[in-house]
Design brief:
2 strands, mainly alpha, 54% helix, two-stranded antiparallel ribbon, 5 helices, globular
């Protein structure tokens, strides 16, 4: 199933890439936004704890090694890992307008 990319996804990806700057696993510089819970999980689709910058190789590797992906995000998030999983299981739609405003402000701060 192909998930539609909406403008908020592009904004979110830009924020994650600006925030992380390098691959959070190997330190490489050509990164993309990688999600722990997939983008189909709307409750955390644009949650900054649910994503990090990964290079193509690390992204593919972690997606094909689910236990290592879990361990990586547990290490990365520490105590916030369980909170992310709780948010991922919350019903309801996120407020996309509020998320857009938040991301634009965070991007502005990172670009200064």
């Amino acid at each position: 199933m192909k998930i539609r990319i909406d403008p908020l996804d592009k904004l979110f990806s830009k924020f994650i890439r600006l925030r992380d700057k390098v691959c959070q696993r190997c330190g490489g510089t050509n990164i993309a936004c990688a999600h722990f819970h997939g983008r189909a999980k709307k409750s955390v689709r644009w949650d900054e704890d649910n994503a990090c910058g990964l290079c193509f190789g690390c992204h593919i590797y972690l997606d094909s090694h689910p236990i290592e992906k879990i361990e990586f995000f547990q290490w990365r998030l520490g105590d916030r890992y369980d909170l992310l999983n709780a948010r991922a299981n919350q019903p309801g739609k996120p407020d996309k307008g509020a998320i857009e405003l938040y991301l634009k402000e965070k991007i502005k701060e990172l670009e200064e």
